[in-house]
Amino acid sequence: MTVILSCSNLKGGVGKTALAVQFSAYCGLNGKKTLLIDLDPQTNATLSCVDIEEWSKWAKDKGTVADLLGARAHTSAEGKKKSINDIIWPNVFKNVDLLPSHLDLFTIDLDLAATTAREFKLRKAITPIKDNYDVIVCDCPPNLTIPTQNALAASTHFVVPISLDYLSGLGVGLLLNRVIELCGDLEHDIVNSGLVISRVGRPAQHREETETALRETFGDSVLDQFLTERVAVSEAAAAHKSIFEMTDTKAKDEFSAVSTELCRRLGLNSENT
Q: Does pTM top 0.70 for this prediction?
């Protein structure tokens, strides 16, 4: 069965996109055919993988995830809906394909306000190609709007990256409760794969207290390995490369360790890169 993982948090700036992109790259390097789906209208995951000019042309000629969700009911000049096989961008990393995002997702809640089954559009769209992949990773926007709802409704698992600032810590319990409530309403089973502490080293008040509270409150749900704030991550994004193609050994080791632990929690066999 294909593992579908949503990276979600109600707060931005917690390392969500970095985890989604680098975990996808790790899975690809370890022989897992992987699809990265960017559902954030900010398109950060997309532009971590491909050049902005190439993306702009691809969006115009091929389409994006916004087409699949029905943002502004995009169609071709012939009135034919975009095909997911056309939209998927192959081999952005080794064994990793990309379903790119688009700014049109900013208005998707308005576009689909009167649409039935709007939470299941992504699940329906990926059904024809799902079995082509071992792993599908969804990078969600920092909210619970229609794109995030679609990701969760399509996913078998979700993971929560969290930075050790006070407000991020406060929001974890709220997020978990809302995910459980949403999936209950949709009659959809989903597994919490854990919390990943990320961006360690960034200035934050009450950092030690926040980590202690997280580990005491959520126990084994918090992964042992954490991710440090490193320049190499932003450099990799700017170069449209994975962290495993960069020279920062510590960054590669950290993402490998987190990804290995996450693979274990997802029931995926993993080898060290």
A: yes
- Strands of the sheet containing 135-139, edge to edge, are 89-93, 96-99, 34-38, 135-139, 3-7, 157-163, 191-198
pLDDT higher than threshold 50 for residue 273: no
Nearest to 262, CA basis, from 166, 185, 198: 198
pLDDT digits 0-9 by tens, 44-68:
999 999 999 999 999 999 999 999 9
Residue 65's SS3 state is helix
Q: Where are the beta strands (DSSP E) in 77-119?
A: 89-93, 96-99
pLDDT for 269 equals 76
Q: Please tell me the distance from the alpha carbon of residue 245 to that of residue 239, in angstroms, as a whole number.
A: 10
CB 8 within 8 A of CB 192: no
Q: What is the Cα–Cα distance from 223 to 230, expressed in whole angstroms? A: 19
The phi, psi pair for 173, rounded to 5°, reads: -60, -40
Angle between helices 249-266 and 16-29 (to 10 degrees): 80
**Upper half-sphere CA count for residue 235 (Cβ side, 13 Å):** 11
In this predicted model, which residue has the larger pLDDT, 76 or 73?
A: 73
**Short-list 41, 36, 200, 19, CA closest to 105:** 41
